[in-house]
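Predict the structure of LVIVD repeat-containing protein.
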Amino acid sequence: MRRPSRIRSLAVAGAAILLAVMASPAQAHEPWDDGSVPPPPPSSPADGYSQNMHLLGTDAHTGGVNSDLAFSGNLVYAGHYGGFRIIDISEPGSPAELADVHCNGPQGDVSVWGGLLFLSVDTPQSTPGCEGSRNVTASTPGAWEGVRVFDVSDPRAPRFLQAIRTDCGSHTHTLVPREDGGTYIYVASYPLSATNIGPDCQAPFERISVIDVPGGDAAAGLAAKVVAEPTVKGIDLFSGASGDFFACHDIQVLTPRKLAAAACLSQGQLWDISNPMAPRVIANVDTPDVDIWHSAAFTHDGKYVTFGDEYFGPAQEPFGAIWTYAVDDPATPLSHLRIPRAEPSTYHNFNYVPVAGRNILVSSAYGSGTSMVDLTDPSNPKEIAYYDMQSNQWSTYWYNGLIIANDISRGVDVIRFSGPQTAGAKKLPMLNPQTQTFLLR
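Done. Here is the predicted structure for LVIVD repeat-containing protein.
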C-alpha cells in the first residue's frame, strides 16, 4: 500500500534544501560532473530571535553544504558534503576549527565512538577512500557508497582507516553501544534517486545494514564490518524513482529500554532491539498529516517519542510539525506543533535537553533557524525560544549548556539559552544525538 503524497515526488528526506526558497531536494542526491561539493542555497531572510537566545560565536564554513553533528568533550564534529570538521568549543564565544577533512561524499552524517569517527556517504563515489573521491552513479564500475571510518584520536590530524560498503549507501546511521566496549551501527539507506539504483539498491529494499565495531580505537575501526542486513517492513511504501520501497531515514535508540524509534519516510515505527542484530517492529505509527517521517527522539524519561515531518510545501497547518506520542500506546498523537511563523518551515534534526522533570526539545528548522519547544505537558507543546538570523539550519542540538547548530550555508553557530527551563541539565562526556544511553526520572 502506498499513501498518496502531496509533494513527495519533489522531495528527498534529509536533503539540504532551504525551504524559504523552495529548491528541489532531489538535487542534493544528483552527481556533479566535476566531483565538487554543491553550493548551498541562499539563507532565509532574518526573522529575528527571542530575548532568551544569544549567539555566542560562529565558526564559518561556506561554499558547501553543512549537515549533521556529533560531540565529545569540548569537541564538535561537524559533517558536510565534502567531509567533516572538528571544532573546539572550550571557549564558546570563539569556536576554533582544529581540522577540516576533505573527503567528498554527501551527505556527511557523523558519529563518534572513542577515537573513531563514522561518516555516512549516500551518493555513489568513484573511490572508497578520500583521494580522488568524486560523485558518480551506482552503475559506474567500481562505484562505492556506505560508511567511512576515521581515527580522530588526534583531533588535529584525523586519519582515514577504511570504507565499509553498504547496500544503497548510508543516508544516516545510529550507534547502538554494547557493554563490551564495542558498538553496532544501524545504517539507514534507500533507493530513492535514479543515480543510486544499482545491483544492491533496488525497490522495495526493506532492510537496514548492521556494522559491528569491536572497540573504540584504530584497530577496532579497521576491523569493523557489516554483520547483518535485517529485514524491516512497514504497512506503507514510499515513492521512489524506480519503484515504491520501504526504508528508514533517521533512527534513534533508547538503550535502557531496548527500543528504537525509526522515522521511515512513509511512517514511524517503534522497534524492540533486545536482539540488536534483528530489530523487531512492535508499532507502526501512521499519521496522515505527516508528509515525510524524517527524525525521531525519545524524551529522557522514556515515556514519549517525538517524530518530525520533513515537508517542502507552502506554509500551512499542520505540515512540517513535530508529533508526539506515548511510547506505550503510540496509536494516536498526543499533540503536534508547527513553527508558529508564517513561512515555509519544517522541524528537522533535534534532541531533548537532558533535564529531569521537563521535556525541552531543541530543533533545527531549515529556513526557520533554531526552535526550542516545551513538551513537559506533551499534549500542549509551546515554543519557548527561537533564533533565526538569515538561517538555513540542518542540525541543532543541546549539548552541555549550549545549543550547537550546523547551518547549511554559514557553518557552526554556538548559542546560549538563558531561560529557567533547562536549569540542572545533565552534562555529558559525549553525545551522538541519535543514541540515548540513560534515563532521567
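The CA atoms of residues 238 and 244 lie 5 Å apart.
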